[in-house]
Specification:
Length: 304
């Protein structure tokens, strides 16, 4: 892209691809930011859902788009771990590049209210007394944050956890509400309203204590400090996109993260807004790949 084209950007609608179905944490946070980014850039910003394969379908789509600054990916942990887990990823990691951190959302491990356990520690103790029977755990697909939580729970507790993939976190939560699966872990922005409505029971948060729900204990408090992960979400672009455009998008995200509408929504679910510059976010993604890569190897999540 030449300098004149970058200066004229944006001159048409910008699309943010969410690689999961509507209603999940990625979708909700992306739509929250999209409105603010649109106002700041004076552009029409469209959020488009392209779900499937733990986020790979949407990521592969963005990896094939022109590097013109008009298509972005609102992706999560899977963006840095999918290639560690899957042998069929249809794009190379280096074909998309980090632009901005949107948020770090606490993850909450939940069960159906009929489950007698009071928290994760109690659930583990009850399961072991009962002979460690199989526990089904909804995920948002291979490599998703719930998939990692399920793997971490299995590693750290020794429970017989069977992960059941769904297309999105919201579908996995619906399965627990409906009794199709025993447990899941999903973002606070999705789970807290259902917990307060009595449709889910909170067992633990896999991040720090949540000011908006202080009664929910953290996994560290319950004796499982290695069960730690948040639903972080960031914007990615096709590699080769003008650095000037990427810097403008990063600045728009950081400005949006301090807006009253975004802060009010995020604070209600104890979500940490993104304030990293591009270099900081790039390092963050590299560090997450290293940390979660250890879980992949320990849990044998990689392809045979």
């Amino acid at each position: 892209m030449n300098a004149h084209a970058a200066d004229a950007w944006p001159s048409k609608p910008i699309t943010i691809v969410v690689p999961f179905s509507p209603g999940g944490a990625n979708d909700l946070v992306a739509r929250l930011y999209a409105k603010q980014i649109a106002n700041d850039l004076n552009a029409n910003v469209i959020v488009e859902n392209r779900a499937g394969a733990g986020g790979i379908v949407g990521a592969a789509y963005v990896a094939r788009t022109p590097p013109d600054g008009y298509t972005f990916l609102a992706a999560s942990n899977g963006t840095v771990t999918n290639s560690l887990i899957r042998s069929d990823q249809p794009y190379k990691d280096e074909e998309i590049e980090p632009v901005a951190l949107l948020s770090i959302v606490p993850s909450v491990i939940v069960a159906n209210p009929s489950n007698p356990a009071t928290d994760l520690k109690d659930l583990v103790e009850r399961a072991k007394k009962a002979g460690n029977q199989r526990i089904t755990f909804s995920t948002a697909g291979m490599g998703s944050t719930p998939d990692f939580v399920g793997a971490m729970v299995k590693l750290e507790t020794g429970l017989n956890v069977q992960q059941i993939p769904y297309k999105s976190g919201s579908e996995g939560v619906t399965a627990v509400v409906g009794g199709q699966t025993d447990m899941t872990s999903e973002a606070s922005i999705v789970t807290l309203p259902l917990i307060k409505a009595g449709k889910l029971k909170a067992l633990a948060t896999t991040w720090d204590k949540m000011p908006s729900a202080p009664e929910i204990k953290s996994t560290a408090e319950l004796g499982f400090p290695n069960i730690r992960i948040g639903h972080w979400e960031g914007l990615y672009a096709r590699a080769g996109t003008s650095p000037d455009i990427l810097d403008k998008v990063n600045a728009a995200v950081r400005k949006a993260s301090q807006s009253k509408e975004v802060l009010d929504t995020l604070n209600a679910s104890s979500i940490v807004p993104g304030t990293m510059d591009r270099a900081e976010f790039t390092k963050f993604t590299q560090d997450e790949r290293t940390r979660l890569g250890k879980v992949v190897r320990a849990a044998h999540m990689q392809p045979d």
